[in-house]
Amino acid sequence: MGLIRILLALAVVGTHCNSHPLLKFVGGLVAVQAFFVISGFYMAMIIDTYDSAKTFWISRYMRLYPTYIVCAMLTLFLLHGVQNYLAQITTLPNLATIFIAFTNTTILFQDITMFLGIDNNALSFFKYFGDSSPPLYAFLLIPQGWTLGLEISFYILAPYILKVLRRLMWNS
User: What is the extent of the structural domain holding 77?
Assistant: First the structure.
């Protein structure tokens, strides 16, 4: 299962970069969907190996966070420049600046960022992320990190979903 997930991750990278055609063997959208389906089966298999939901959440988060924070810091220092980036985000309303700083440092809620923007100098929800000017996702250090936010949301829900499904299976 791990090898399939690696190949799917490479397919996503291949979609985002103009890389070798072999990396695009299934396309980005299909790769992301398949990756989440396989991850769901994997979570169902391993969740009982944890002592509690809390240890499960911490373990899953700590598998993502170190790699994310290294990539975010490299992006900040090498691509944006710290001073330039800080100058950009401080032009946002205070709540938006706080939210962007929080989500960039923790990964949490990056998926929600795709639906947030600035309207009348205030942080607002939008149906379509392109309707905002500027779109808030543009201030994410790693814009593709929204998938990690979604993954963390899934991890938070997984223990409860499995508990309900098992209860339904035993009562059937």
Answer: 62-171
